[in-house]
Amino acid sequence: MSASPPAWLEAGVGHVWRPYCQMKTAPAPLPVARTHGTRIVLEDGRELVDGIASWWTACHGYNHPHIADAVRRQLDLAPHVMFGGLAHEPAYRLAARLAALLPGDLNHAFFAESGSVAVEIAMKMALQYWINRGVAGRTRFLAFLGGYHGDTLATMTVCDPEEGMHSLFAGVLPGQIMAALPVDDVSHAALDAQLAAQAGDIAAILVEPLVQGAGGMLFHDPEVLRRLRALADKHDILLIFDEIFTGFGRTGTLFAMQAAGIEPDIVTLSKALTGGTLPLSAAIASTRVFEAFWSDDPGAALMHGPTYMGNPLACAAANASLDLFEDGAWIANVARLSAGLAQGLEPCRALPGVVDVRVKGAIGVVEFAQAVDTGGLCARFAEQGAWIRPMGKVVYLTPALTMDDDDLALLTGVMLRVLGAGA
């Protein structure tokens, strides 16, 4: 970083509340001038290869011309109109395209701006589903240890109470039901028994399919999802998949649920939905859920409506992003990235303190026994030309699906050198 920070940074540093850090002691943020491809260009001219695609959003790389052109065209037509009582082509076309891409009858999209809000909407749908059906007492959710679903009040209650960054609020927020994932016959039987005892209290089961992301990049097999679908059906409980991280190719299929060959009752999407350009999320319900709200009774309606719901600019970006997925090139790219991550990160297994190295799709993880120094490691990675932001005990890569082999090799090489020098 240059000796003199840019004027805009100096003017605003005392006024911006930064995410996920103790601002008094954290290193200063790196000032960004622009982006392109898989690179972040800093104000001092340095370029960093982005190893995490801006929290997994920039799946096609930065500044993709097809997405940028779609947003520019929409900007000239209508940057925003309220969604209450009005309709516009980008949102309605997007809803139809998502319904066609998702398996089963996940046909009914409710749009919002952020992933956390989409999960809250899914939870609200699940609660009201039972109310509309005249079933009392279904007021709680069953979620899983290692899970993470957002930072808003309701989503904090379904995160891992110890590992989900929200332990400070234990005892303050409503308690949900936490369980271990049914990864084997023993844990499956335990969950079955737990559901048998508490099904009358539970509105829905909530899980991140295949990868529990911000809770530690924890992987599980597709069979776990099949077990959950079977248990939800057995005990007449709704099943919600949080695909905000895993959706849009990250794990090797367009949606993680496809690896298991089953569908939830509600799925949440965000992150890569717009290719990392504009905020947009969706809670998409099955026909079964939707029909519980389809009524002559005004009181059965879902009374929810974010101000920027279905924003035309964001929906135009999402439609353009879906265009880029249509040619199928991403499938080979994810396989290529997966092989490169496995090869490049495997030597980290021998480093002191490392307890695991794992790869699933375009996700590569090096896990330590203890939490790492996020700020210090970020700075050391940046000094060597990489933007990598560790999380808890894991140092991970989630590159753009378009990243070439040279940039990927740079990232894995930087990780090996920096972590090998002492994490």
Proper CATH architecture of the domain at 65-326: 3-Layer(aba) Sandwich
**How many β-strand runs?**
16
**What is the string of helix and strand elements?**
HEEEHHHEHEHEHEEEHEEEHHHEEHEEH
Low-confidence runs: none
- How many DSSP H or I helices? 13
The proportion of strand residues reads: 15-25%
CATH topology of the domain at 65-326: Aspartate Aminotransferase, domain 2
Separation, N- and C-terminal Cα atoms = 22 Å
> Biggest sheet: strands side by side, in what order?
4-12-11-10-7-5-6
Largest sheet: 7 strands, mixed
Rounded to an integer in angstroms, the radius of gyration calculated over CA atoms is 22 Å
CATH class of the domain at 65-326: Alpha Beta
Whole-number mean pLDDT: 96
Summarize the structure.
The chain has 13 helices and 16 strands. With 423 residues, the chain is α/β, with parallel strands linked by helices.
List the helices and strands and how they pair.
Blueprint: H1 7-12, E1 32-36, E2 39-42, E3 47-50, H2 53-56, H3 65-77, H4 89-101, E4 106-112, H5 115-132, E5 140-144, H6 153-156, E6 177-179, H7 185-198, E7 202-207, E8 211-212, E9 218-219, H8 222-234, E10 238-242, E11 266-269, E12 281-286, H9 287-291, H10 312-326, H11 329-345, E13 354-360, E14 363-368, H12 374-383, E15 386-387, E16 394-397, H13 405-420
Parallel strand pairs: 3-15, 5-6, 5-7, 7-10, 10-11
Antiparallel strand pairs: 1-2, 2-3, 4-12, 8-9, 11-12, 13-14, 14-16
Overview of this protein structure:
With 423 residues, the chain is α/β, with parallel strands linked by helices. It is 35% helix and 17% strand. The protein has a domain at 65-326: Type I PLP-dependent aspartate aminotransferase-like (Major domain) (Aspartate Aminotransferase, domain 2). It has helices spanning 7-12, 53-56, 65-77, 89-101, 115-132, 153-156, 185-198, 222-234, 287-291, 312-326, 329-345, 374-383, 405-420; strands spanning 32-36, 39-42, 47-50, 106-112, 140-144, 177-179, 202-207, 211-212, 218-219, 238-242, 266-269, 281-286, 354-360, 363-368, 386-387, 394-397. The chain has a 7-stranded mixed beta sheet, sandwiched between helices. The chain has a 4-stranded mixed beta sheet with strand order 1-2-3-15. Strand 1 (32-36) and strand 2 (39-42) form a beta hairpin. Helix 3 runs antiparallel to helix 10 (312-326) and helix 4 (89-101) runs parallel beside helix 10. It starts with 6 loop residues before the first helix and ends with a helix.
